[in-house]
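Extended Data, record T6SS immunity protein Tli4 family protein
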Amino acid sequence: MELLKRTPMYMTAIVRWYLIPFFVAILTLTACNGSPSEWKTPNMTALMPRLKPVFEKTKTVCFGRFMVDVPASATVVWGDAIVPLGVSIYPNGVDEVRELAQKFIVDLKSKKAIYHDHVPLLIEETNVSQPEGKIVTGYDGFEAINDLKINGYFGINNDGVIVNARPMKNERDETIALINSIVRRLRQRPESEIPTESGNCIEHAFLVDEPAMNKDDLLEHIRIGFRLREFPDTHLSIYVAPANPNNPEDESLKAQWKRIKEDPATPEEKKALANTKFFRESPRQIYDWKTGYEVLMRAPDEEHVHSYHDFQIKFTGVPHDPFKPYADVQLQTGVANNAAGATKSSLTDEEVIAIWDKITSTIRVRPTSGAPMKSAEAGTRLPLGELAATGRSCPQTGWWEPDESRNREGSQRQYFKTGERMPHVVSLGEPSIWQKLKGERPSYRTATVWKLVSYDDASARANVAAQPPTMAQISPPSILTNDGTAEDGQSEGKSPEQKG
């Protein structure tokens, strides 16, 4: 169980290595002429007498933006959560996380970056006050040039939290700002709690959405599994992720089945296919998830491997819609020591199908109240120097300026309220001779990281308003809107002075 918490979990049992080439692919297959053409809500197989006590009491479990009903006796096993950075919660583990932070720092100090004059891999340690912790930045290995690893180590009440990222060097400030944003939106959550706010359920915690969250920016990966106490060899798993906007049908179960059926790779695959029992193969819809394809099969007995059930639904999802993601739902029987077929299945074919239909048909979007999260003004002010990248929501009402403004002439200080989108920087470049003749002056729109430099002070606002505009504040008639979108007269990228 500890291993599943700290390493990537591919959910449910892993098929023995010598079966993987065929049965991972064959999972997409089925050939049952008697199945209906579409299983929107399957004709539910009635629970057999042996199963009724198992489902007499159920519990609702939330994962990501969704929830599912499982037997109350089922064990919940979480895999990795990426929202959009990796987040791990250590219950009652504040001291453990501090030790891990120190170990990470010592490791970075002990190694040299060979392409950076053999300096230590450690670049920076930054202490954070809200919540208390530190962010450690270093090169991602001794051969790294622009690859970084940035870990944040924090304490939330008695729990330890680690947020990890692997950005490029030019994404450093934006990543640190995102780590700070994530940890400040995290709160502890017992397994039984089903939050009503918009956000993501992860193991032991809930991550509240930012105000005015742009759903196009959401890169959420959630893995969760369930073990049935009454049938311990039966494992079910769910994985949700952003839908692929580029030819998602090519990744569907239907497409995979078509490929393997038309051209089995080996004679062994042909033989295994002939001996595999298929129960169902068809499109599958669960509530608003309409892009699914379902395959239910039972692998044959092999040498040293028992016959086992291998069920799967894949939803290709809808690109840029976090409520209709790519989803992969699997169930296997005969699982022991994390290998399917290591023991005999404790369930009959009919019982497995009944359990599958019963649980999968309850997967749904978690309803929310739509109430906005509490603003920073409702509690302690965020410290001056707080960072927020272009495109993210402002975490604290006040005066902000681009973090790199020290390299620019004049001031680019701007006033933002909590929840407003942090905009791009707009500046005016030097016109070319032709542009001077036409009376034009180019403007440039670039992403940046904003830094909080002052709080909401009416007198300060009045003083700034009375000052003449600086180069960065003057703009053509059509200028950058507050949500970061460009209008006529602008181009995005580097100014001529910056381009190489």
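Summary. The CA atoms of residues 402 and 450 lie 4 Å apart.
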